[in-house]
Amino acid sequence: MGAVTTLLAARNLQKVYGDVIALAGINFEVSEGVTGLLGANGAGKSTAIKLFLGLIKPTSGTAEVLGVDAASTVEIRARLGYMPEHDCLPGNVSAAEFLTHMAELSGLPPNYARSRAADTLRHVGLFEERYRAMGGYSTGMKQRVKLAQTLVHDPVLVLLDEPTAGLDPGGREEMLTLIKRTGDEFGISLMLSSHLMGDIERTCETIIVLDAGRVVEVGPVTSFTEETEAIAVEVDENREELITALKERGVEPLIDGSSIVIEGVIGDQYDLIRDALVAANAPLRRMAPRRHELTEIFERNGE
Amino acid sequence: MTISQAGQTGRTGEVFDIGYRNYEGPREGRPRARRTVYKEGIRIALGIGRGGWAKIMPWAFIVAAAIPALVLALIAGTVDRLTGGLGDEVIDLPSHGDYYGIASIIFLIFAAAVGPELLCPDRRDRVINLYLVRPITGTDYILARWAAFLTIMTLVAWLPQFVLLAGLALGAENPATYIQDNWADIPRFLASGFTLALYVTGISLAVASFTTRRAYAAAFIIGIFVISLPFAEGLSSDIGGKVGQYLSLLNFSQIPLLMNDIIFNEENLATEDTLATQLPKLTQIAWYAFMTIGPFLLMWRRYWKITP
Hints:
The structure holds two protein chains of two kinds.
Chain A: E1 6-17, E2 20-31, E3 34-38, H1 45-52, E4 60-65, E5 68-69, E6 80-83, H2 95-105, H3 110-123, H4 139-151, E7 157-161, H5 169-184, E8 189-194, H6 197-203, E9 206-211, E10 214-220, H7 221-224, E11 227-235, H8 239-248, E12 254-256, E13 259-262, H9 269-280, E14 284-291, H10 295-302
Parallel strand pairs in A: 3-8, 3-9, 6-7, 7-8
Antiparallel strand pairs in A: 1-2, 1-4, 4-5, 9-10, 11-13, 11-14, 12-13
Chain B: H1 3-9, H2 29-46, H3 52-82, H4 87-90, H5 96-114, H6 120-124, H7 128-131, H8 138-171, H9 175-182, H10 185-208, H11 214-239, H12 241-247, H13 255-264, H14 281-304
Helix pairs in contact in B: 2-8, 3-5, 3-8, 5-8, 5-10, 5-11, 5-13, 8-9, 8-10, 8-14, 10-11, 10-13, 10-14, 11-12, 13-14
């Protein structure tokens, strides 16, 4: 495969279904690391993934995977992993047997496939349960098998479609940790499609935002969540008194959920905030530079 | 080594987390993927790697298909002793050419019950979506599954014929002479068994490609065979003549038996009263080809452009 640093590339990629434009000639590149594909339902995320997997042909443009046009060959899929959003596991087969089969389907000889299946199940924390029929697994365990089947053949890139869908908070936390570990420790690049900003913020280094079939933002996640010149203050009590005290000192605070936000803080204003806190007798819980939030991307583009 | 032994020798074990290791072994791509789908199809058809219930049905049918051959073989082996050496003159034992006429219903039910298992669960559980994101196409998948079931059906069709051959040969005064005199039956029953397998594999998998429920597919396939028999035979004998002969072709359970008659160049017990046998052989062959290729194309089309 050589030193391919661009793993995925959409070049004027367009997909039209009848009168519906699913993707409107988009351009972006995905490099090594964990990339988030963020967008609301119908934004074109699943269509983009199907195009990169070569499952559908583009109306125009190309979807390149590891330097190859995905529509031209199925062989490239031997180096990709894909985790669909919905259930896709047979209930009457054990995880070990299923993963061995999936590894062979990706081109690994049977002996290697068996060994890789056991190793991969260990990495996702299912080694002890590997000989149990998957019909008896919990939702979280099934999600881990779904992730394991994407890794069993040691792919270069894994595409995850809504990997936390249907999980409870504990299961979601486990899955996000596992995804982060896959990127950081296993050295496998991932593209994570989600409509949940928290998932993207938590796991991804780079983000591609799709909206109505168009790319609206591309860049490092940190550039969207970088510090602003505003200070966010949170107190345990006497919130109203603090707002009054700030106003008396010529500071116009903004309210953002549980935070009191003071914009354009420079020099002496830190002293003013300190004095206001003392005057209002408000116990300080948190005071930190405010960060942008990913939700602002959509607010910005909706304007 | 026990803990005390370890203490005595001063050697202790340590467990290391070797972490994630990249795979550096061979990658055999699409050919391996196709072979895997084929191999898995064979395993599913025989219930290998599945629970007890999944094994019972295919093996029960295999045994059931072989039983008539075993009974005939036993009769052939003892008939001379029972009739004082006049076996052939006293009892007209069914031959290789008659066998599928006697046992074809078992093969049809086997195909109806087992064939859908190769396709329906993959679509019902949506495992097909994981197949198609690997280095195979929908065509690769369906051809491999079709080839797997054709292999099983062919072997299941041949097995009782070999049992019968062994029985007839061992029952003869001189088995070597029997084989020498009747060797031509071997390629005939191999060919006939294959045409039967080809036919039922196509119909079974074509029906299975339209539903995710194995039971619906099985019921529909058995329905095709069971309902068409009285319908076509009743109608064709009532109307008679050329039209009756053509209507007789609609007896779907008889179609592979028409090929059997052509291959053995004689009518078997099940087709003695079938009007379709009076049609030109080319017409019978064309109808068989249509009823074999048609379902195959239908099934292939269902998977040709399938996407998750």
